[in-house]
């Protein structure tokens, strides 16, 4: 069943990273299901609903997964059942506390940028600055072609194809412009690049994958002394948080991020865990 699902995913209009994530989460569900005492979980809607609700309880109560992780797993399982012809399960999502998406704080951002500057690879420097300075998703970053980037001495723009095939144009920050110019100059000397239009190439001259880009980002984050949860999405959240909390109009921020709904962008106005810690720290103590 997993193999059949993976084959179906291969032709789905999803980013490669999303396909891998869905396949992984469905595999975990099927492994759990193999040991669960549920009647007809793969052939009837009643069995489906009972199984998914039990699985939600297992993720929350036994594995202690966060609400966002639980909901991500349920989304993948719903996709699995939909492709089997049963449709999504009647199971409520876990309640997610209204908190801002995780982003790097100001000090962490400086540490990250210093680690980027210390990196000896022009490709890697440009690659890891794109989500930070342009707010792109990892799939959007590796999907960029050379022709999508237009640079001049004082400005530049990047054409990004996002979710729902929505295209947007993002002004390129001066730091990113410098990094991209350096990488494009080096890329032009790569004979193995051939006629590949991809902006970011792997060592064999093919298009860099989302997994490869993720490894580069986490590697530089480790060099900066940051934890291993720093990803392209955290960098994108840092971009969005900086804009929104810096007073950028939400409509402009939404356009730059490629959000279809303004409510998605509004999430960056919510208090973060750090905001809550600072608030509690204001309380007096008796010394």
Describe the protein in words.
It is a single chain. With 287 residues, the chain is mostly helical. It has 2 domains: 2-83, DNA polymerase, domain 1, CATH 1.10.150; 106-271, Intergrase catalytic core (hpI Integrase, Chain A, Orthogonal Bundle). 55% of the residues lie in helices and 5% in strands. Strands 1-2-3 form a 3-stranded antiparallel β-sheet. Helix 3 packs antiparallel against helix 4 and helix 6 crosses helix 10 (232-245). The radius of gyration is 22 Å and the shape is globular. The protein starts with a helix and ends in a 6-residue tail after the last helix. The model has no long low-confidence stretch (mean pLDDT 90).
Q: What's the main sheet like?
A: 3 strands, antiparallel
Structural class by secondary-structure content? mainly alpha
Order of helices and strands: HHHHHHHEEEHHHHHH
Q: Taking all residues together, what is the mean pLDDT?
A: 90
End-to-end separation in angstroms reads 64 Å
Broad shape = globular
Give a concise summary.
This protein is mainly alpha-helical and 287 residues long. It has helices at residues 2-10, 16-34, 45-62, 67-83, 106-118, 122-134, 138-143, 174-187, 210-223, 232-245, 250-257, 262-266, 273-281, and strands spanning 149-151, 156-161, 167-171. A 3-stranded antiparallel beta sheet has the order 1-2-3.
Secondary structure layout:
Elements: H1 2-10, H2 16-34, H3 45-62, H4 67-83, H5 106-118, H6 122-134, H7 138-143, E1 149-151, E2 156-161, E3 167-171, H8 174-187, H9 210-223, H10 232-245, H11 250-257, H12 262-266, H13 273-281
Antiparallel strand pairs: 1-2, 2-3
Helix pairs in contact: 1-2, 2-4, 3-4, 6-8, 6-10
